[in-house]
Every structure is written in structure tokens, then in C-alpha cells.
Amino acid sequence: MDITTDNNLAVSANQLTKHFGSFTAVDRINLNVRNGEIFGFLGANGAGKTTAIRMFCGLLKPTSGEAWVDGLSVNTDSERVKQRIGYMSQRFSLYEDLTVMENLTFFGGVYGLKRHQTDERAEPLLERLELKAWRRRLTRDLPLGFKQRLALGCATLHNPRILFLDEPTGGVDPAARREFWDLIYSLAEAGSTVFVTTHYMDEAEYCHRISIMKDGAIVALDSPSALKSKFNRNSLQEVFFKAVAG
Ligand SMILES: Nc1ncnc2c1ncn2[C@@H]1O[C@H](COP(=O)(O)OP(=O)(O)OP(=O)(O)O)[C@@H](O)[C@H]1O
Ligand SMILES: [Mg+2]
Predict the structure, then answer these.
(1) Residue-wise pLDDT tens digits, 135-149
(2) If you take atom 7 of ligand 1, which residue's CA is the nearest one?
(3) 101, 105, 162, 223 - which has most CB atoms within 10 Å?
(4) Which domain holds residue 94?
(5) How far apart are the CA of 145 and the centre of ligand 1, in A?
């Protein structure tokens, strides 16, 4: 199969590798994520998840191997890759001293939207994120769960086909996490592909498929139910422990 011409694939990696000096952070990973899929990217701290995501987003050059995002090579077409994706980084980069609306306007500009486009899209987005009442408030005054929703809004304002969310719910309470996942589902239903990292196993259960990374390599990849039967375990928590212990 020629990956670059398979229109059904949102993200794919072929032997994708990143070295930092003599250290291998991402070690020859292979994966294919289909359009519209919610793909969970799991692994212990330091496993290489963020490094891999930064390569998929065209922000970090691979040492070797290749990845395609929306059919574009991250090695040769990283600028166009950046226009097709939304990226919510692990330590997301909202401006605390700007209001909610000012953050949306700023990120709309970063993603190349004209001011009137941002204004048109901000209204329904604020409604969907339940942030309308907060639009003129300073971002620093928002509860963390609200900031996270705003960061998601900033990453989706330009209607990207593929969303990379790096630990979007870290530190957020269970009810806010649940609401955040409702948003992820509605984005996927509207046709977006969602590539998401998490340390929460209940969230991993919500994904169509997940991969588990250990020391830069992918050691398991399948649907949550298939992984449980493959590893002969009742919960993803136990699958995770078995996969990273092996
Ligand atoms: N710029 C860099 N230079 C050197 N080493 C780096 C660099 N960036 C990441 N690393 C190392 O690469 C490894 C993988 O880091 P990465 O941030 O990708 O892990 P992660 O799976 O996202 O972890 P976490 O769950 O803690 O976010 C770590 O050992 C990290 O220290
Ligand atoms: Mg990380």
C-alpha cells in the first residue's frame, strides 16, 4: 500500500525515529490512524509521546523514518502540515493576560484566519464550549477545566482535519474531564480525527484504538477490547502494566 495515496489515513508513521544526541526518544514507530478515528497515545512519563507528536505536527524534524499527516510528508511538507492540524500542547500556551476572546483572536491570526472569520467562528464555538459568559474575562481567572476548553477552542478555530491533543485533561477534575470528552466525541462525529495522549485509563477506554509506548517504542496497538483479550486482562490498567513491564 502506498500510504501517501491512501485518502483514508489521517496520520501514519513508518519507522519514525528521533535521537537527542545518543539518546533515542522515539524508536522506529509504525502506526496508521484512520480519518475520523479517536486514537489514544499512551505510555509512561518519558516514553516519547510528546516527541512523536511534535514530529507529527511538523515542529520537530525526525532523525530518520517518515510520517504523513493528511497525506503530507512531515519531512518535506511541514509547513502545509501545520495548516491542516490543530495542536493543543502539553503545557498549553494560552495568554493569561488576555481575555478569552482575545486569546481566540490571537490564535485565529496564528492559524491564518482573517479577523471577520475569527469573529464569525468564535460565537458558535464559545457557545459549544460553554464559555460565552466568560468571553471578556481574563484567562488567568478561569478555572483550569475552562482553560482547557479554551485551549481546545484555540486549536480548533480554523476547523483542522486532524487534532493533536497532548494530555489535554491533566490535572482536571473527573466531571470536567467527562465534559471534555463529550467535546472530543462531537469533534470526531463532525469528521475530525483526534490523536490524544492521556495517563487516565478511563479516557483510554473512550478511544477507538490505542497504542502503548515504552522507551520510545510502540509495544501494543489495537482497540481497548482487543488489547484486553490479547493480553488476557480485564482492565486497560492491567494491560498497560503488562505491556510496559514486558
Ligand atoms: N529536546 C530534548 N533534548 C533532550 N532530550 C529530550 C528532549 N525532549 C525530550 N527529551 C527526552 O526524550 C524522552 C521522551 O520525552 P517526551 O516528552 O517525548 O515523553 P512523554 O512520553 O511525552 O512523557 P510525559 O508523559 O511525561 O509527557 C524523555 O526522556 C525526555 O527527557
Ligand atoms: Mg509528554
Answers:
(1) 999 999 999 899 999
(2) 20
(3) 162
(4) 3-245
(5) 25
Contact status, residue 68 vs residue 238, Cβ threshold 8 Å? no
The cell 513508518 sits on which residue? 14
Q: What residue ranges line ligand 1, CB within 6 angstroms?
A: 20, 23, 25, 43, 45-51, 90
Residue 6 pLDDT: 62
15 C-alpha to ligand 1 centroid (Å)? 18
User: pLDDT of 98-130, one tens digit each?
Assistant: 999 999 999 999 888 999 999 999 999 999 899
Burial label for 5, CB within 10 Å (0-12, 13-18, 19+), is exposed
Q: Which atom of ligand 1 is nearest to the CA of 54?
A: 18
Read off the CATH number of the domain in which 128 is found.
Answer: 3.40.50.300
Q: Residue 238 in 3-state DSSP?
A: helix
Look at residue 5 and tell me whether its pLDDT is greater than 60. no
Closest listed residue to residue 156, CA positions, set 61, 92, 91, 74: 92
Provide the number of structural domains found in the chain: 1
